[in-house]
């Protein structure tokens, strides 16, 4: 590492760099390497949230700036998750090719998805919870889907206040959106606090007809 241009140090007379300087230089090297190989506009896992920070949708991590995100993409965690995703998609592609139909398919054989008639909102219960050990506050959502469509599992999404079009955006809130055909999608308005995604702190459980989501705030 070349430190000859550091302020107050003559050529050849510099001392050994400290941990913070070495670490900063390493992050800058990773950032420069990433800039040469990654176009953020084409990165499917790069997302800027409503708080102005950046998120990696693959690793579920948050970064203060794009440089931090770029350094993260060169790290072991991101590269490992990329390899896992590639292996999973490769297996899915192999299964799809095995089960694929012949290329010559008539128009009458193509199945067109029909509009699904919604049957109303599911029953639900929301409970405030607190971890007795850490004191963290959390929420438990329980929804009932007795008439859910065949081979359909409920899905959830956490939406920022600026993505919805129902009410005036308020940065102090976010929305837990849950969908399951043929029921109408429902959304719960919750505080815009960071959700603890560490193991065992955020989980979902589908035991038909009950769908449960439990989360804790950091």
Automatic annotation (TrEMBL):
GO terms for biological process: spliceosomal complex assembly. Its main location: nucleus. The keyword Ribonucleoprotein does not apply. Residues 54-84 form the Matrin-type domain. It comes from the Eukaryota. It is found in: Nucleus. Keywords: Metal-binding, mRNA processing, mRNA splicing, Nucleus, Spliceosome, Zinc, Zinc-finger. Pfam families: SF3A2, zf-met. GO terms for cellular component: catalytic step 2 spliceosome; U2 snRNP; U2-type prespliceosome. PROSITE patterns: ZF_MATRIN (PS50171). One of its GO terms (molecular function) is nucleic acid binding. Belongs to the SF3A2 family. This is Zinc finger protein Sap62. It comes from Schizosaccharomyces japonicus (strain yFS275 / FY16936). The gene is sap62.
């Amino acid at each position: 590492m070349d430190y000859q241009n550091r302020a107050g140090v003559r050529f050849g007379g510099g001392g050994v760099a400290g941990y913070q300087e070495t670490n900063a230089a390493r992050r800058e090297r990773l950032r420069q390497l990433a800039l040469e190989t990654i176009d953020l506009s084409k990165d499917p896992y790069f997302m800027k949230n409503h708080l102005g920070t950046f998120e990696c949708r693959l690793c579920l991590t948050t970064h203060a700036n794009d440089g931090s995100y770029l350094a993260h993409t060169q790290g072991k965690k991101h590269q490992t998750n990329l390899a896992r995703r590639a292996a999973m998609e490769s297996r899915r592609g192999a299964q799809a090719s095995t089960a694929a139909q012949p290329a010559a398919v008539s128009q009458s054989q193509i199945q067109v998805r029909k509009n699904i008639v919604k049957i109303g909102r599911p029953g639900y219960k929301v409970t405030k919870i607190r971890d007795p050990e850490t004191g963290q506050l959390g929420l438990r959502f329980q929804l009932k889907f007795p008439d859910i469509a065949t081979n359909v599992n409920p899905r959830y999404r956490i939406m920022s206040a600026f993505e919805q079009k129902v009410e005036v955006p308020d940065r102090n809130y976010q929305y837990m959106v849950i969908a399951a055909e043929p029921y109408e999608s429902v959304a719960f308005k919750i505080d815009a606090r960071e959700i603890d995604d560490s193991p065992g702190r955020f989980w979902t459980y589908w035991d038909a007809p009950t769908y449960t989501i439990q989360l804790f705030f950091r």
